[in-house]
Here is the input.
Amino acid sequence: MTLRIMAIDIQKIRGQFPTLVDASRRPYVFLDTAASSLTPRPVIEAMGRFYTDFRANVHRGMYTDSLRATEAYEAARSKVAGFIGAEAEEIVFTRGATESLNVAARGLAEGLGPGDEVVITIMEHHANLIPWQQLADRSGFTLRFLPLGEDFRLDMEAARQTIGPRTKVVAFMAVSNVLGTVNPTEELIALAKAQGAATVIDVAQAAGHLPLDVTSWDCDFLALSGHKMYGPTGIGILYGKRPRLEAMEPQTFGGDMILEVTKERSTWNRIPWKFEAGTPHIAGAIGLAAAIGFVEEIGIEEVVRAEERLAAHALERLQSVPGLRLYGPAGGVRGGALSFAVDDIHPHDMADLLSKQGICVRGGHHCAMPLMRELGIVGTTRASLGIYNTEQDIEDLIQAIHEAKRIFG
Here is the structure.
């Protein structure tokens, strides 16, 4: 089935998501893609075929089902590689972006110590903050933060002053899960490379919503989750440049990641398999490949245009609500995370009131507590967009916000 048409048919796309076509769930407006997207039928069906047609382990058996499973698993690796402009051997399957970021941080921190600096942004998700905090405590390097500038965008003048000779790693998110800010990835990588620093890019909020190309970016590592880009939970990837992966030691040990084992010592398998100990999430990898196929069938350029148009409309409508304050860029290029606060209504209360009207949003600190402290707030209510959302979803959100305001009087 082909979804690519002259102009995106959102209703046709929505029809691919069982959750959205289930009439028993009405009213139901899903605006929480930044936390975890819905899953379309092609992904569900691809995973189902594995469980029903060739359920077997990979890399081990010589029988037909095991060979089919191995072929599908490694084909998924190649699919991911093509999606981000990498080579298949540079793709390590993980449980998600959080594990990927931890693996990259631990690998890079092995050579760091007092006098060295790791630079991240104040808007980072905890997954790209806590690992560096913990490793800094153990190794003695300094963790430095890039601040926000105007319009909730990164202060690039501060970045140019902060990233210097002592900088060994620059790690940052491509798109903020709170603010919707799209960070200047290429410029930050260029600043890091000028100092000989490694780069780690968290694209959890960008994958499936913006084009990705590790070759043109020339980044060293990239972390991606499947469940935020219409794929299954529990699967993601760590991309690493071949020399970086070859230089890193594995961090989990067991089966499939070894080349030879004696009573005295072990030697490791080639990349990427030396990082994939034990039985992997085979169905998850197959589902991730299907999710990429779903996005590619629509066309990433079409996805970008549709989501940009809807985000602009949503911003305009939200700004029309009296007493509502937006946290994030008020226009221009931005992601689909729309964080806001309304009068004195706590974000948890707002999320609860919206839920009672069938509106699915997220309330809280969104795993970004340092950012919230920087903004002087306890949290926000966040609506976030996917390819299945419509202008009617935004109108339903606006009406529900007005009703919540009425209840709080």
Residues 10-30+299-408 form a domain with the Aspartate Aminotransferase, domain 1 fold (CATH 3.90.1150.10).
